[in-house]
Amino acid sequence: MPTILLLLTLLGVLYSHGHGMSREEKRKFRNQVVEMFDHAYQNYMDHAYPADELMPLTCRGRVRGLEPSRGDVDDALGKFSLTLIDTLDTLVLLNKTTEFEAAVRKVLSDVTLDNDIVVSVFETNIRVLGGLLGGHSMALMLKERGEHMQWYQDELLHMAKDLGLRLLPAFNTSSGLPYPRVNLKHGVWGPDSRTGTETDTCTACAGTIILEFAALSRYTGDPVFEAHARRAMDFLWEKRQRNSNLVGTTINIHSGEWVRRDSGVGAGIDSYYEYLLKAYILLGDDMFLQRFNIHYASIMKYISQPPLLLDVHIHKPLLPARTWMDSLLAFFPGLQVLKGDIRPAIETHEMLYQVTKKHNFLPEAFTTDFRVHWAQHPLRPEFAESTYFLYKATGDPYYLEAGRTILDNLNRFARVPCGFAAMKDVRTGSHEDRMDSFFLAEMFKYLFLLFAEDEELLFDVEDYVFTTEAHFLPLSLSTAPHSSSIPLNKTSNEELDDSNFDWTCPNTRLLFPDPAFPRNLREPIRSAVDRSCPRPAPYREPGMGRPPLRAQDFMANNPEHLELLRRMGVSLIHLKDGRVQLVQHPSQAVSTVAAEDGVRFMQEMMELSSQQQKEQLPPRAIQIVSHPFFGRVVLTAGPAQFGTDLSKSSTGVRGFVTIAEPYSGCSEITNAEYVQGHIALLQRGQCMFAEKARHIQKAGAIGGIVIDDNEGSSSDTAPLFQMAGDGRSTDDITLPLLFLFHKEGNILLEALKEYREVEVLLSDKARDRAAIFKGKPLPGSLIEGSVDVHEAEGDCTTEATTPTSFEPVGQSQTSTLELDESAHEEAAPSQEDVGPAAKDISATVDVGPQEETPCPADGGRSKTERDSEKGEESERDKHSGSRSVDQLLADWREDLEAFQQMERDEL
Q1: What pTM does this model have?
Q2: Looking at the domain that runs over 620-773, which CATH code has it been given?
Q3: Would you list the DSSP string of 460-475?
Q4: What is d(CA 184, CA 190) in angstroms, rounded to the nearest whole number?
Q5: What is the pLDDT of residues 664-689, one digit of tens each?
Q6: Is 270 a catalytic residue?
Q7: CB distance 276 to 240 below 8 Å
Q8: What is the CATH number of domain 23-477?
Q9: What span, in angstroms and rounded, lies between the C-alpha atoms of 778 and 614?
């Protein structure tokens, strides 16, 4: 005991010498968390309640059926005031007991569950059933204290049981695995249910039931809920791959066959592992711990490659299944803390932190070299969750700084007048009209706990287990009466292995007597992320005494470039459709060295095309900077192939908006005196985009915004347009022109209608609001001291001035490449296709079609299109040099299927 006291005393001294955060600083950040919560919660109550969610850009509630469908994402909405129920126990944690009491009364008086609507069993369980049970546990705690809720008679529990009974029909399968969806009113069978035909579910969907259902059984004394949840968990365990002890991502609920055999710790599987360990913690059943430890050993053997966590195939666990990671795996370091395996938790968290600092938020998916794979960020709380658990485990103030980074980024980039808006694209800072209920249920809980002192809490959180939605279930439920009919440890003949219990409940304080130890683990990972975008040293062309012509620098109208091409044996052929074909004849080069340089140039063009398929003219940002928006609202805009390139502007273009007359912009502007010096708003249609740009430029406009005339169109569901020229030179157009779909354009028009004077900033990405307000020059990146624009985007490339993409069109005596801006699913030829210098190589350069072409940037695609294409491109970028087209297409199809399943899993 004296030794332990000495260690703890020494640890406190080491933390106090300039490394920690003072109590006053922590209190300031804790109060900031409360203020941010109030901003989000009050806007939901003022503008959205009783709807399920708040739409923070348009300041109204999201009611299912009244808004354009978002596919499976909407299955979380059941017309049961989702956000209010999900937030109940957060109110208590933040010491808002009066608001909690009022919220409970609203739930009891206003919310109905008898709705003819199909909902996700998984989402409804963790958000609504978990929210009701968490609210019930808080109500009991407050009632016992004698200050609040004295009138409470288990009303939330009665509502929870009603909901549990409505979810039970989903478990009526031969396997015991639940259907993924259920109709709250009609169950799963019959013509009225509109469900019951599904065959597949995700592992997490079936394996994230036990905490809520067991708690419901223990609270009510009805064993049926816990029994069904245990049966589903037992079936998943029995269906694990016996050699690898891993589970797949998607399973057939009738046959038990694995539909998707890739295995990881992210989307589709994540909370299955979480619930195995937490079921042991809550229920005290050793078998859950035994199963978790067996799975965990396999995860650390096959999936964990610190600091990375990479998916593998369950039958071939040494074979990687993908080259990217999704943001949901950010919960795993927190789970490792509960397990007691702190070292890999520190390493993975540090990797996630560095990716967060590179992109301001964790992208929905990112590659193993830390580039953006899917650019969205729906304000997920998993990284904050792991940050809190690591701080609890280590006491290292480094994690308080990580929490402050989360707070700063939320306030600077996600905060809008009506709440907090999800990020549509972390690279541009554009927003999505979305604030999920988990943002209030989880994010503010973990951030508040991170900065709060124990004496500032109304109750001891150590007496509760957090569900995957961060709802509080009391550990006392482990001793609550439950029916002996619940099978305990009857599904496996395996005996417990004591070795699997090591470090299950460690005293984590004693793991780190030296505070420098975690820092030593973090430093190499920080360097690894920083090195992920190396800048190659410029090389000089052998034999020519000057730098060679690089593909990204090539311009078809530059005489010097044409001379360099001629020396390398590359000639140009101007095609009738306005494109330029590049053809290399090695025999016509001035020397063997020059011919080899020509081959390298053509290979660079191929590599450039692969990069530019996702990078060509990425989505731009329109940031509303005037009152009351102050830069908080950012709209995703499509770029133009002509005019000012905003990616090369350090300040962007800032000005007040004015509606041009005529609105179409297809003839001379009649209100030029108002357009002059302003940014003109135009309607799409009736003429070419370049013609609109010329008319407003002649009227003196400094920029233009074209708004789609197709009512209801949105970048959420339609491809974002890249506006093309009109078939002739557009060098005379010098102002920037951006495109907005109808939904985003209406936000701008409504703001103009209400406030009369609306000032916007046109740029490549949202800019630092502090600099905007102070009138300082706008920085070229989102955060002061951050990496440059391209590194902030995580793309590790230089902006190219050459055309956009290649398409292999045949290989006989020559290899032909076409740069076609409308192509989306091409694969670049392999290195073997280029051949030695003896072969001729031909490439066609597209200088711009004469009609609108879809912009392949992800900011404007429908979620499925956008992300499936990114999956294809990421795989292609890595392997295009050595793999066949058939292999690439197979990988693309696998990634597409993976994303579509992840959509169903609520990614």
Answers
A1: 0.70
A2: 3.50.30.30
A3: -GGGEEE-TT--EEEG
A4: 13
A5: 999 999 999 999 999 999 999 888 89
A6: yes
A7: no
A8: 1.50.10.10
A9: 26
